[in-house]
Amino acid sequence: METKSGRLGIGLVGSGFMGRAHAFAFNAVSQTFDLPLKPALAVLADQNEAQAAEAARRLGFARAVSDWRALVGDPEIDVVSITTPNHLHKPIALAALEAGKAVYCEKPLAATLADAKQMAEAARASGRVTLVGFNYLKNPIIGLAREIATSGEIGEIVAFRGIHAEDYMTDPAAPHSFRTHPVGGGVLMDLGSHIVSLARYLVGPIQEVSAAAETVHKTRPSADGPRPVEVDDHGHLVARFANGAIGTISASWVTPGRKMQLDFELVGTRGSLVFTQERFNELKFYVGEQKGRDGFKTLLAGPDTPPYGNFCPAPGHQLGFNDLKTIEVAHLVEAITGGKSASPDFQEAYEIQRTIAAALRSARARTWIGVETL
Amino acid sequence: METKSGRLGIGLVGSGFMGRAHAFAFNAVSQTFDLPLKPALAVLADQNEAQAAEAARRLGFARAVSDWRALVGDPEIDVVSITTPNHLHKPIALAALEAGKAVYCEKPLAATLADAKQMAEAARASGRVTLVGFNYLKNPIIGLAREIATSGEIGEIVAFRGIHAEDYMTDPAAPHSFRTHPVGGGVLMDLGSHIVSLARYLVGPIQEVSAAAETVHKTRPSADGPRPVEVDDHGHLVARFANGAIGTISASWVTPGRKMQLDFELVGTRGSLVFTQERFNELKFYVGEQKGRDGFKTLLAGPDTPPYGNFCPAPGHQLGFNDLKTIEVAHLVEAITGGKSASPDFQEAYEIQRTIAAALRSARARTWIGVETL
Amino acid sequence: METKSGRLGIGLVGSGFMGRAHAFAFNAVSQTFDLPLKPALAVLADQNEAQAAEAARRLGFARAVSDWRALVGDPEIDVVSITTPNHLHKPIALAALEAGKAVYCEKPLAATLADAKQMAEAARASGRVTLVGFNYLKNPIIGLAREIATSGEIGEIVAFRGIHAEDYMTDPAAPHSFRTHPVGGGVLMDLGSHIVSLARYLVGPIQEVSAAAETVHKTRPSADGPRPVEVDDHGHLVARFANGAIGTISASWVTPGRKMQLDFELVGTRGSLVFTQERFNELKFYVGEQKGRDGFKTLLAGPDTPPYGNFCPAPGHQLGFNDLKTIEVAHLVEAITGGKSASPDFQEAYEIQRTIAAALRSARARTWIGVETL
Amino acid sequence: METKSGRLGIGLVGSGFMGRAHAFAFNAVSQTFDLPLKPALAVLADQNEAQAAEAARRLGFARAVSDWRALVGDPEIDVVSITTPNHLHKPIALAALEAGKAVYCEKPLAATLADAKQMAEAARASGRVTLVGFNYLKNPIIGLAREIATSGEIGEIVAFRGIHAEDYMTDPAAPHSFRTHPVGGGVLMDLGSHIVSLARYLVGPIQEVSAAAETVHKTRPSADGPRPVEVDDHGHLVARFANGAIGTISASWVTPGRKMQLDFELVGTRGSLVFTQERFNELKFYVGEQKGRDGFKTLLAGPDTPPYGNFCPAPGHQLGFNDLKTIEVAHLVEAITGGKSASPDFQEAYEIQRTIAAALRSARARTWIGVETL
């Protein structure tokens, strides 16, 4: 990719939680990774002009605009970072790809599966690098988990039991928002997509699912008074993977006390892994059997689990959430500059979304649904 | 119940792991509980005469017999304790009930659902006390969990996520046995019944299930060489409870490293519970929200969780597995002497077994199965 | 030892927490261990006659007496079990040894170091079996810890960091009792003796100590109003072991929230052990270094850690506090019948007490104290 | 402080582990904190000219120099960041203070206590802002611990039990280095200073100590063959605090398996705190007693523990080690721009070092040492 003056021009659309996280990561990545091109925070777009200007100042962007189209068309921009509400992902991404930009998009990929498919196809057609922000996959200890799971070290993988539960919608007074809007897909799309991304990363494609889902709080406050909620507050499914493994996957945003329960247990014929995102620098690992010295080991992230060493040379010091985003951005820049594809790209994000869509359909139809039938 | 000379005559059939556990419990219960009647270890029956005599001597039974019929018909016997292979539960229990004895039977209740139903009906008709050995329900901290779950303290229960996984069949060289015999029902019956018993105890009846199950090791060694395995090594299901809660339940005897993973997470609208049998004197408890002091509490079993205090007046000292059996026996004796019914009785054990049978049928039929349709 | 009619006559003095625990253990041991002689619960002595009779009935003793001298002199008694307040340990033990009985005594051995020394000497002179109830040493996983620590498996032991903290005296309204009586020795004697017994068991003799200790609540309620407290509520010391290891030992009965924090970390030149009594069926174990698979292992008690298998054939099911007492009694009976000595005997209990006495003297003198100088 | 053109010119001396961490933090702080002045990475100094240039390029410094004197004298520099070997701290800091710069220095403050004192005095005389890199104090959950400890929420603090153990010198083949050089002060200065800084932060000044320390590996390889080691590999002490609390403090770099065991237990008259740096986004908290719902709570860092929210709006997502450095730098910049003093400053770092020096002297003299006597 040719870029202006040895720098990679970054255009960020959106300046909320994830917008800030993208900006932090683009800023940090040049110091922590030895990249051929240094990202330059060029343009920040946000609907509200004053807010855009203020965010640009605070986050260190050179310019601010209020229309994302101006950003996408800007020749100084090499990468378009999309952190808007979900329904805007598609128009921005398609325009960016058409303009020849690399696209870095927050999850879930799109508001509907049809949109996601269209985006994946556009990405493939464009030949441009795309990357979707399933940041928990970038955790070095998850990299180790994948190495253990895919190398045969714990035998053939036969079971996966995962969950992503939090409590931010526990309060029945939590109001309607983009999260509870029908196009959002409810908790299975919002959180379930994370645990599905992990399941696919560690075990492979999910072939079919049988799900149940419920709306615990049937109405939520809105400006117009109590409004019915049309999406699920929690969902649970049995999954069958392409490799023959089976297991369960759950998602909930109404689990009191859980702040970041993105957990899994992965079972092979000779060993097991156990993980919780609430202690994401640790992995519980069991293999084989040693008479009298038999037990799960607690592995800690460190220089042996790259790219931890880019952040700190000493083990046990721990990476934080924003560091995962920095690794994600490093992968993005490496793909752009190296002519490789990034992962998870639009295609993989579409597959994740398709799996969730199958779960939602299964919950409604009360039957097993093959993921590929969607 | 009238008994001979102020003592409760105990007849034990079987002298394996569970036979010994019953004997330990009948021996310990008079010291730990203030019961109106003291169990007397009267007769032990085991097929092999020499083995029966040796077990009787070691476990402190007054006499040994090799035919359980002799035990059941013995007028000195008030309680028949059944710890034989599953297929013998029915004939012994029916004979014992007919002879007017109380029956204390190990789980699962019977080799087939039809047998279990027949036993539950016979128990009801007899009016005798029955109790089935789902000993993990007798844990004082599980009693606390039930109190919290049913009192409304954490709101309405909306989700349950449970598992019972161990690793004793992980080795493909583990031979065929009663466990892998088709009438055994595989791991869902063997271990799954424990987690289903907990689910029912804490949340209530399961209405319908959708399940998947797999045999990881398709053959196992037998005296006649490798023999196909017809039961499941692990199974997973989505469950819908009568009260509207949903969730997942898993069972596995091929999970490397797990020795006693009988775990659950129980979610209410205002709080949560988390438990693992590997640390069964602890319960993680979350309720409400206290700004800045928000988190799961680790509750420890102690005198506040009766009947812990019968064993030890100081908290944190911990009960062991055999103590759970002692509590079970105390409940049995209290029911017999108090004219109350014990729990879980044959009827409840039948309901547990029916739930498992529904899961097995669901896995084969690849569809949701209503538990009451069986 | 010759005993009456193939049975070992047990005489129990005291019927409180520890009296009951002894009775439970003598009752359970015949079933769980294959011993040449079966303990028979013969006589229970308690000052109050009615209380003695009631305890004897409940605990299954054949007879009750109100004077321990009658018990000690009884020819049916082979073993005298002492669970009285500390100041009575000496007269009872000396009388019992003189009467040719084996003596099983609760810790600490005596009210004063001089008394403890006299008891150890009397025991040696008598040639009788003695055993002191440092029951936490009987934990199978502590047996494993000792094997690991003493076999060289983790190299040479260089450091030990231990504590025994509970919270039963946290409340300033907790009244004066035998615990706060000056002859009791305060928390260092009451709880500190447990962690010192572990330190000696795992590392060896402590050569010298430098300690600090404090009375947090300077007065406590008594029948006569607030009374000054003359013993320590918590104490901390630096220790130097005979083998060159160094470390710290703490004891506290005023640590809010701690129910059974009998914890240690043991450091060798090639590995480490970490333990807490609040999860006493687990041992954290680290040895060597395996690049990329480096971490502490959680070992669970099971049949590989004898005598766990005497209680349960399956790992991970867990022993309870009372099971530790049963193991202790098994060791006692094996020593008596096998002509071996039991451990920890009066001599070892004296050494433990001497170490505590050195700590108390060090705290007062504000200087290092050699344990052997006492 | 007047600075050139609205920016704060940063001069970094050293480009190792800590040099990089400083650069990361100065880069990240403008995005994460709303500061009146933005740090500008102006000059990096490293002895080796090529290395300096390369580090400047990678870390984003405008210029590189090989002589720190050039950096200190540079008018574009407002803050001198010192991450060199310990013996260079003094000359650089004194020159920087004399040149009117703010000084940000890594711990320990100096190679000797006399040097540390001279630096503290120079800092006071200069009126300039100084800050020493005890970064673990900047952890939001440690901020919460301090709030709980100092507000009276858990009563009066009566005990502290702390340790900092790692395993990077466990291998006897680990060679001599600046760490094992006598001026380094051994493990008590290297790691012990961290746990002492925490003890002072949470409980207050330490008045006197009694210590023991040992060199486990008496020689270590050097270019000239095996060389005797003159510093300690681990040390342990009893401490008495000015407020009357007592407890123990340990430090070790030879504890196999420990990567970041910076742990403490803090005991008040009404509650307790437990912390380990290996899970530094968590704090175990106990207060009061709630009958039947009594237990330690696990608090997680989140927006309620500022300035966590500057990094992430959602709780449970976790900060990493480098984020602690960013908070440290924010405090530095706030102090410089706000005319306040930063903490821990040179004076506090001197007090920490004095406490360690007292421990070292105590270990040699085998007696209690008052910290103020040094």
Short description:
The structure is a homotetramer of 374-residue chains. Chain A is of the alpha/beta class.
Structural class of chain A: alpha/beta
Question: Element order, helices and strands of chain A?
Answer: EHEHEHEHEHEHEHEEEEEEEEEHHHE
Instruction: Just give the CATH class of the largest domain in chain A.
Output: Alpha Beta
Largest interface: A-B, 48 and 48 residues
Shape of chain A: globular
- Rg on CA atoms of chain A, Å: 21 Å
Count of the domains of chain A: 2
Report the mean per-residue pLDDT of chain A as an integer: 95
CATH superfamily of the largest domain in chain A: Dihydrodipicolinate Reductase, domain 2
Between the first and last Cα atoms of chain A, what is the distance in angstroms? Answer: 35 Å
Number of strands of chain A: 17
Query: Low-confidence spans of chain A: pLDDT under 50, at least 5 residues?
Result: none
Report strand % of chain A.
Answer: 25-35%
Taking the sheet with the most strands of chain A, its summary is: 9 strands, mixed
Helical coverage of chain A, percent range? 25-40%
| CATH architectural grouping of the largest domain in chain A | 2-Layer Sandwich
Number of contiguous helices of chain A: 10
Please identify the oligomeric state.
Answer: homotetramer
Q: How would you write the strand order of the largest sheet of chain A?
A: 16-15-14-13-7-12-11-8-17
User: Can you tell me the CATH topology of the largest domain in chain A?
Assistant: Dihydrodipicolinate Reductase, domain 2
